[in-house]
């Protein structure tokens, strides 16, 4: 029997939905299934009933928090970098037509026990309370160096070579203090740890330029966020896929991923029926991650854990000028850790909760056997907390590229505060599934008229 579909996609998380959207646009026949009765998998946004059901099955949401339908609480806290790769995919696929974005009102960093705005230009650096008088002058020279750098003009290089010299060399050249290096490397270049310091400076330079150019786009922060929560992102790509003939089925139990005698993918058994396809793509939970695994072989390995605390507040975060939304980064060195702690806060401005409620998610990579203590430095910045939901989630990665058996597994969502690594995974899986690089073309609007 011929395969009915080119690709079966399991799980409607963001990575899987972007892939099924792009594959459908490319002309592939896609069947997309999810065991849940809602879109988004691990990257869903939940209403109050769903949130309490997930974390406190025996407790109804307090009526004080308002109406269920006002809530869309993200399970994975991430923001979109205005000039980043995620924005590129949204624009090129024109998925932006299904979404409305608002900027995030502030970007803050923790230094020496308090939080301050992240300066992103030499002018802001000079005003920043993050640095003393002499350090400000040095930081100003550093930012000027970055802003005037032109690859083809050695006069702007000040004797430095971004492809050869390490970031350490560059910090030393400008005499920047360790605390200043912390906010540049972690709150602007958005590194999770300090491994970047000894590597060639080019990547860090590009990341800082991405931060400052994104900042320049909207002014208050380099981040944007979709109204009604991040769960809108996978749903928008699902709509794109559907326009191009993709089939979506929610609430489908996945009994087994079926392979032939050589271990190659044959089809997916769901509710006693087998659907055949050439290839399958799915999130780790369908391939042996944790106890939710359905039938078949384990194809993922745990690569660490993330602890996340969803905190419901009745006030903005202290010290953020009453921002209705913000990101706060606590660089690892500032609290004697190896991984940064992130805080992402959104509110009714983004239609994700009732008026006068604020939802802050504190997260980090787990380093000890007491993960809740590890996020305490972040939780302590929030002021009184109305309610808190803590989870520890393993990060899974595939054990094989999938090209040998046509079974392609995506990665779990990591601890980064943005979507750039999700887009990297999309490119990576695409290349293995299709056999060539993903080239983002503007989509053919004709198809939509016919669809
Ligand atoms: C919230 O989620 C529950 C469970 O999925 C659903 O039954 C309910 O309709 C949702 N509430 C609103 C207002 O959307």
UniProtKB/TrEMBL annotation:
GO terms for cellular component: cytoplasm. Pfam families: GDI. SUPFAM superfamilies: FAD-linked reductases, C-terminal domain (SSF54373), FAD/NAD(P)-binding domain (SSF51905). The keyword Aminoacyl-tRNA synthetase does not apply. One of its GO terms (biological process) is protein transport. It comes from the Eukaryota. Gene3D superfamilies: FAD/NAD(P)-binding domain, Guanine Nucleotide Dissociation Inhibitor, domain 1, Guanine Nucleotide Dissociation Inhibitor, domain 2. Keywords: GTPase activation. InterPro entries: FAD/NAD-bd_sf (IPR036188), GDP_dissociation_inhibitor (IPR018203), RabGDI (IPR000806). GO terms for molecular function: GTPase activator activity; Rab GDP-dissociation inhibitor activity. This is Rab GDP dissociation inhibitor.
């Amino acid at each position: 029997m011929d395969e009915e579909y080119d690709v079966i996609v399991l799980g409607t998380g963001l990575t899987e939905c972007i892939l099924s959207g792009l594959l459908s646009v490319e002309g592939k026949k896609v069947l997309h299934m999810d065991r849940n009765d809602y879109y988004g998998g691990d990257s869903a946004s939940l209403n109050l009933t769903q949130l309490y059901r997930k974390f406190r099955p025996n407790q109804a949401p307090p009526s004080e928090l308002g109406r269920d339908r006002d809530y869309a609480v993200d399970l994975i806290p991430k923001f979109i970098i205005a000039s980043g790769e995620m924005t590129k995919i949204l624009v090129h696929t024109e998925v932006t037509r299904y979404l409305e974005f608002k900027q995030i009102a502030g970007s803050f960093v923790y230094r020496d026990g308090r939080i301050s705005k992240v300066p992103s230009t030499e002018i802001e650096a000079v005003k920043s309370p993050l640095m003393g008088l002499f350090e400000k002058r040095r930081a100003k020279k550093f930012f000027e160096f970055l802003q005037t750098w032109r690859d083809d003009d050695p006069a702007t290089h000040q004797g430095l070579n971004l492809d050869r010299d390490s970031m350490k060399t560059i910090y030393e050249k400008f005499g920047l203090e360790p605390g200043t290096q912390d906010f540049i490397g972690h709150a602007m270049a958005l590194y999770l740890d300090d491994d970047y310091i000894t590597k060639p400076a080019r990547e860090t330079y590009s990341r800082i330029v991405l931060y400052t150019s994104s900042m320049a786009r909207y002014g208050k922060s380099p981040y944007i966020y979709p109204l009604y929560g991040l769960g809108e992102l996978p749903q928008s790509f699902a709509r794109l896929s559907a326009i191009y003939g993709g089939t979506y089925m929610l609430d489908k139990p996945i009994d087994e991923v079926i392979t032939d005698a050589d271990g190659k993918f044959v089809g997916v058994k769901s509710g006693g029926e087998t659907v055949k396809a050439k290839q399958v793509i799915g999130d780790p939970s369908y391939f042996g991650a944790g106890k939710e695994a359905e039938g078949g072989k384990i194809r993922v390995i745990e690569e660490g854990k993330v602890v996340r605390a969803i905190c419901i507040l009745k006030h903005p975060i202290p010290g953020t000028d009453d921002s209705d939304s913000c990101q706060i980064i606590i660089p690892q060195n500032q609290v004697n850790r190896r991984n940064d702690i992130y805080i992402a806060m959104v509110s009714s401005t983004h239609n994700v909760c009732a008026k006068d409620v604020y939802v802050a998610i504190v997260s980090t990579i787990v380093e000890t056997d007491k993960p809740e203590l590890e996020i305490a430095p972040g939780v302590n910045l929030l002021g009184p907390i109305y309610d808190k939901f803590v989870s520890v989630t393993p990060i899974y990665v595939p054990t094989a590229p999938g090209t040998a058996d046509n079974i392609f597994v995506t990665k779990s969502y990591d601890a980064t505060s943005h979507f750039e690594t999700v887009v990297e995974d999309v490119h990576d899986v695409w290349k293995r599934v299709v056999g060539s690089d993903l080239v983002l073309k503007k989509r053919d609007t004709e198809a939509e008229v016919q669809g």
